[in-house]
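Researcher: Let's do a round of design. I'm pasting the structure tokens now; please hold your answer until I've finished.
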């Protein structure tokens, strides 16, 4: 008993000593420690950084913010402001406090840390030096203009939307890389972030600069050399229930994106400086922002995700200049709105789902905005939401100027398997039975490709793109095995269309699973999954993929290739007859578009599940591929990376 008391007293004394040391370190001792251990890397003089940044004025400074020092991306994205507590944590274990930092030397003794922090606290900036560095000039980049965005499909130099252009064709009119030259491709440059985050972004290229999102960060790099031009790091103002982000949109010198805590933000395209931010969603409403925006004229078109958390979602238009709302259309209708009658229990609409998480499409000539609306909620317990549940799993066409409904097509009514309709592009025109028709391709996680006439709304055909078994069998308490599973079919990157060959190229996931529902009605809880059941995916080694070329007029398969891994990356078609894509085996791929034969393969060191883009600069065709960890569901390897390829 005495021994225990002595131990408790000793522990209390040590804790007290540690607290006293932290609160009242000795600055004189700290200066001596700093001079012997730290000056090889850090100075204490204003404007004189060495291997590490100057530590003059570090206490109270935002991490990664010193203008004259090139920080790692990890430190710039850390979001910390250096005070006694954060400095103590960092100096005790730098890589634990900021994963990816290049600072690896720790100060293990608490008393030494307290002394050093006390000394650093004395290093005040002079009044003139304490003023903020001059803000970078704004408005140096003026475009792209509306005319450029509308002509993006024929633009060889730029890639101006997540899917290349408003039509979402993912096609480039370039042939320098062709079936004869593709085998000679070589990596030209590599950009690698030190910040670990999911990599599903769709890069944008404009005037030789590439813009992409890396979780909270937005980055601009040189599209030829991969050299970083600027980085902007959003510091969350609220809770994040999902951190995936799939890209930006640009127009008139502005870059717009959503954040995982529900803010729509605009940055200056030339400098990355924040121009405005507006909260439009958030965890409190079970929502987050992940889709790439679409910008048309003075409007940013955007909507939240969060159906799996029981959100009630919508799409809206916001002013490009300041984010002010213009119009809103409810994807889960209110009481007085058309579609409400398809929810037989009106209370179910309060948490009805209907996410936007993938790219939109726009038919400029008609002013028709096409939306891919996701699954209803709860995902697997349809008993609580009887009816067709509009507008979930629907392609919804709106008047882009007013947000008024033009027409819709529901692909899956009363979905009970999380079968999101994920793609409403490409938009294209093709000859069908001797007559030119304006068409739209729909695809999603139910494993079907559908092609509709945009004028008559007729379904011309629907064909499977992956294994489909027990598709319409509802989940049971005991469980039913179904293909596709939770992760099957078409995910966040859609088909490519070649007008040269009138071919749709479709990459898909073949991964089945066992669906169960709860034995009683689920209760909604804010900021928590609202599933009403579960899915156990088949073992990961059974997850495969398909790449299929379809005659766009008839839906007949021209060729079909089985893949050893799921295919979730973007697909690019070219005039040179080459397809560009990648797989979960870390391989960037160039394929013969006529037969699917692999012409070139390169191990990027990371899984490929994001965008792939191609563009021409100074007479040379480039292909850029994103790689890195794909998601919690799909897994993957590698830090977020962009690799740019070209011919020697």
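Researcher: That's everything. Go ahead.
Model: Designed sequence:
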């Amino acid at each position: 008993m005495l021994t225990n008391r002595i131990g408790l007293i000793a522990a209390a004394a040590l804790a007290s000593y540690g607290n006293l040391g932290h609160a009242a370190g000795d600055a004189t001792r700290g200066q001596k420690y700093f001079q012997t251990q730290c000056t090889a890397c850090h100075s204490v003089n204003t404007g004189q950084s060495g291997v590490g940044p100057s530590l003059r004025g570090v206490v109270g400074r935002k991490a990664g913010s010193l203008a004259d020092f090139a920080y790692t991306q990890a430190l710039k994205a850390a979001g910390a402001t250096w005070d006694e507590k954060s400095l103590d944590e960092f100096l005790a274990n730098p890589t634990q406090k900021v994963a990816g930092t290049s600072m690896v030397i720790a100060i293990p003794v608490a008393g030494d840390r307290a002394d050093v922090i006390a000394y650093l606290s004395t290093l005040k900036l002079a009044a003139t030096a304490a003023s903020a560095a001059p803000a970078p000039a704004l408005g140096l980049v003026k475009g792209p203009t509306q005319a450029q965005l509308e002509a993006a499909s024929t633009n060889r130099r730029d890639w101006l939307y997540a899917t290349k252009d408003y039509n979402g064709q993912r096609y480039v009119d370039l042939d320098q890389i062709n079936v004869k030259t593709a085998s000679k491709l070589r990596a030209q440059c590599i950009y690698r972030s030190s910040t670990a985050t999911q990599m599903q972004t769709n890069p944008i290229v404009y005037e030789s600069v590439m813009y992409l999102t890396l979780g909270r960060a937005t980055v601009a790099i040189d599209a030829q050399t991969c050299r970083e031009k600027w980085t902007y790091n959003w510091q969350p103002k609220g809770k994040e229930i999902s951190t995936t982000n799939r890209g930006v949109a640009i127009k008139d010198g502005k870059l717009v994106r959503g954040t995982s805590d529900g803010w729509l933000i605009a940055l200056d395209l030339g400098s990355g400086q924040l121009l405005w931010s507006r909260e439009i969603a958030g965890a409190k409403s079970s929502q987050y922002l992940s889709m790439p925006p679409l910008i048309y004229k003075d409007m940013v078109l955007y909507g939240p995700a969060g159906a799996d958390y029981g959100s009630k979602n919508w799409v809206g238009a916001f002013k490009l200049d300041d984010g002010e709302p213009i119009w809103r259309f409810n994807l889960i209708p209110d009481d007085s709105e058309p579609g409400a009658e398809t929810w037989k229990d009106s209370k179910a609409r309060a948490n009805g789902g209907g996410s936007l998480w993938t790219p939109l499409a726009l038919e400029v000539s008609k002013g028709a905005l096409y939306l891919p609306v996701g699954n209803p909620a709860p995902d697997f317990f349809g008993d609580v939401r009887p009816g067709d549940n509009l507008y979930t799993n629907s392609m919804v066409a709106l008047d882009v100027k007013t947000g008024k409904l033009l027409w819709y097509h529901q692909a899956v009514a009363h979905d009970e398997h999380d079968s999101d309709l994920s793609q409403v592009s490409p938009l294209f025109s093709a000859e069908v039975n001797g007559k030119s028709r304006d068409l739209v391709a729909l695809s999603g996680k139910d494993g079907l490709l559908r092609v509709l006439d945009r004028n008559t709304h007729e379904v011309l055909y629907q064909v499977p793109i992956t294994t489909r078994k027990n598709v319409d069998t509802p989940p049971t308490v005991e469980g039913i095995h179904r293909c596709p599973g939770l992760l099957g079919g078409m995910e966040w990157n859609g088909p490519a269309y070649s007008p040269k060959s009138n071919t749709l190229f479709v990459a898909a996931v073949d991964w089945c699973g066992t669906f169960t529902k709860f034995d009683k009605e689920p209760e909604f809880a804010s900021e928590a999954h609202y599933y009403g059941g579960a899915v156990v995916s088949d073992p990961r080694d059974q997850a495969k993929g398909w790449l299929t070329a379809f005659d766009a007029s008839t839906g007949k398969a021209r060729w079909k290739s089985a893949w050893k891994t799921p295919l979730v990356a973007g697909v690019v078609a070219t005039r040179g007859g080459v397809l560009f894509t990648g797989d979960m085996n870390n391989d960037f791929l160039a394929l013969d578009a006529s037969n699917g034969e692999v012409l070139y393969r390169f191990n990027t060191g990371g899984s490929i599940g994001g965008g792939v883009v191609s563009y021409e600069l100074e007479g040379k065709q480039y292909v850029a591929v994103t790689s890195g960890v794909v998601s919690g569901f799909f897994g993957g390897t590698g830090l977020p990376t962009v690799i740019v390829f070209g011919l020697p």
